[in-house]
TrEMBL record:
Keywords: Membrane, Transmembrane, Transmembrane helix. It comes from the Bacteria. It comes from Neobacillus rhizosphaerae. The chain crosses the membrane at residues 37-56, 68-90, 96-116, 136-152, 158-177, 198-217, 229-249, 289-308. This is Multidrug resistance efflux transporter family protein. InterPro entries: EmrE. The keyword Membrane applies.
Amino acid sequence: MRPIILGIFAAFFFAFTFILNRSMDLAGGSWIWSASLRYFFMVPFLFIIVIGRKNLNSLLFEMKSSPIAWLVWSSIGFGLFYAPICFSAAYAPGWLIAATWQITIISGSLLAPLFYEKVMTEKGPIQLKGKIPFKGMAMSSIILLGIILMQWQQANHLSIADISLGVLPVIIASFAYPLGNRKMMDLCGGRLDVFQRVLGMTLASLPFWFVLSIYGLLTVGPPSIGQSIQSSLVAISSGVIATILFFHATDLVRGDMKKLAAVEATQSMEVLFAVIGELFLLNSLFPNALSWSGMGLVMVGMVLHSYISHKSAPATISISITNNRISS
């Protein structure tokens, strides 16, 4: 029961990403600063954690060995993930973005052929090219149906252009995030823990954020104090607290695929927490019955997908990341 509770708390803190991004947009803050400030503020917190665990030197050694790969995949995994997420906040409420973001399960599955798996056989481990898990994809169609139902409410008072700008960037992010993180996991080969990897990717993505910040200074000016404070809250709640809670929960059930699937499924609660947060904090538009039905389908689809994806997992040891929840 403890891992489930920790997973739910992680979803609660992850939800602040979507709520605060929407809040900053409604207050007139630019998506440029919502995106870049989060990663600037994450650096000192992650440094403290990694240094406290005495793992900084091994991280720096890994980064020096393949600097270009770190730069490229970190910019994709963090830059092309979070910048579009923040951009979409100008065109859709946070709860809708949180729900649409669950499509990352589908995106991650479609990326499987780009990676190799280590499969245990009678003759020992062998490397096989990943295959798209079509059984899990069937469950993912439930998630897609839920997202379509939720978008239907927005279609009543938003233009097609606005809906597209609120959804398409999230779809781009849903591919960039698992792609960047999986490539980095392959590159690290299990030599770094999650905190080292997240700090390393944050540091390696800083050039992307510096360039984006310069563009922001030239086009919209510096961020306000309020936006800086809210961005720091996102960095702490989602980038640090939620990540620690979620990975501690997964560590507690390591080796038990059914329990691991249950912990991963708790992340569907992000959608519900985002709705509640926006209703109370931002006085957002109350979702209609169709949208609530869509949210229910998204959450059910996530639970079913998680269980099916782990059903036969004991026979396979995959070197590719199976959950895409590193600091969402």
